[in-house]
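Hey, resending since the last one bounced:
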Amino acid sequence: MTQGVGHPVTFNILHNLGYVYYEQGMLEKAEETYQQALAGKILGSDHVSTLDTVNNLGITYCRQDKLREAEEMFQEALAGYEKALGSDHLLTLNTVNNLGVLYLVQGKLMEAEKMLRRALEGSERQAEEGRGDVSEDADREGKDTVP
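The structure tokens again:
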């Protein structure tokens, strides 16, 4: 089987390359690479790897002060994570946190508080119930939160 534009391995490579560009501060290149990965709709819009890329594109938009676009990406990732993983999964809560920080930057303090409280309460439930391994999700390649 050949690997090319529509292959899951290619998607994974593009996601990781986008993250490398992001880490190097090459934000336009990161944006283009994430968009290229998403354009093929290789894994489906509700696949966790696709949602990771959508979330990371939102983070990239934040760093570029493209706040409207960032909000759209975070909302899309959040809806997908909730559907695929549930509202208290660590990846879902990470995106809730990202939205909260974005709303804070935008001066939307009520929305920021709502999202950040939701993320905190979800994280506390995770800890109380002993669910999820924080280090497992935190160590995922190409995973980040809004700085």
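The first helix runs from residue 8 to 23.

Sorry for the duplicate.
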